Amino acid sequence: MNKNQKLLLVFIGFCMLAVIALVAFNIFMPKPEVQPNDIEVSQRSQEEEPADARNDENEKVYVNVYFIGRNENDEEVYKAVKRVYNKDVDGSKIKFALYSLIGGPKPNERQKGVYTEIPSASQIINIQESSEKIIVNLNSAFVNEGGADSLYKRLYQLIKTAKLNSSVPVYLYINGQRADVIGGEGIMLSQPLSNSSLEN
Fold first, then answer.
1. What is the pLDDT of residue 31?
2. pLDDT for the residue numbered 89
């Protein structure tokens, strides 16, 4: 065996030892545990991300509730206020919208000049919904306070809110009785509710 052959054998042996050492290192050395936060978002599948974590503004659903405010000319106008709606929590759109209406403007809405003509003692007794009609049954406080002007305004708030959030005919009842005549002033109300219900 000449000198070159001996050198070649030594080199091959050295390479084999290096490979064995690397294999042993990978087998016996502990590996660091991967945490969820270590994974880039782009590497996660959409199924791994819970639906409630995606709080995208475009996914929110709103209902409009009519209160009263003033426009840029300081004229009194009906103002639609957006409220976030969740079908699983709030039930039907019209029910949520009407409860929001009777509850009145929120503090942050009042700070923007929004108010209501609906008396604070007003309550919803019940709302009956079917495929043919919706009956909104309110207590007498809804019609008992304020003069004719206030009564007209609160009725329009109710009409506009109901019509905007339902395609089914809506009827107003007071203490279980259909409200065709409203208040001591004897305001005539044609039903089902529409934008022309008070035009008598």
1. 37
2. 79
Give residue 112's Cα distance to chain centre: 21
The token duo for 81 is: 């206020």
Token pair recorded at residue 123 = 């309550």
Radius of gyration in angstroms for the set of CA atoms belonging to the chain, rounded to a whole number: 35
Residue 186's pLDDT is 85
User: What is the secondary structure of 111-144 as a DSSP string?
Assistant: TTT-B--S-TT--EEEEEE-SS-EEEEE-THHHH
pTM above 0.85, yes or no: no
Q: Which two tokens stand for residue 61?
A: 């659903």
d(CA 148, CA 79): 20
Element holding 61 (H helix, E strand): strand 61-70
CB 194 within 8 A of CB 172: no
- Give the residues across from 172 on adjacent strands: 136
Q: Are 67 and 106 in contact (CB under 8 A)?
A: no
Spell out the alpha helix ranges (H) of the chain: 3-28, 87-90, 93-103, 107-110, 141-144, 148-164
Report phi then psi at 16, rounded to 5: -65, -40
Residue 188: which H helix or E strand, with range? strand 187-188
101 in Cβ contact with 158 (< 8 Å): yes
Residue with tokens 């049954």: 137
C-beta atoms surrounding 98 within 10 Å = 24
